[in-house]
Amino acid sequence: MLTNYIRVAMQKATYELLEDGTFYGEIPECPGVLANATTLEACREELQDALEGWIILGLRLGHNLPVIDDIDLNNTKEVA
Q: Partner of 36 at 20 to 30 A CA spacing, among 1, 23, 46, 79?
């Protein structure tokens, strides 16, 4: 499930070539997940690293992560 979430989120990434010749990438569904690098491939790799860290931190802190293409990583179990 986690691998699919990362794959689907990365498919939603947007990239832009900046005036300084570097690439900027972000995943709009995942606030704060962004990267900047000198090549598009490096930007993709940095963006995936940022996404993975964002997911881990969000889960650890109990944040609600966005549901992406019906993939829900949130713990919805109620404690009795």
A: 1
Dihedral (Cα; 50, 4, 55, 44), 10-degree rounding = 10
CATH number, residue 34: 3.30.160.250
For residues 66-78, average pLDDT: 86
Helix (H) or strand (E) holding 2: helix 2-11
Four-residue CA torsion sign, 56, 14, 40, 3:
positive
- pLDDT tens column, 38-61: 999 999 999 999 999 999 999 999
Tokens 């794959």 -> residue: 7
Task: State the Cα–Cα distance between residues 8 and 14, nearest whole angstrom.
Answer: 13
In a domain, 75, yes or no: no
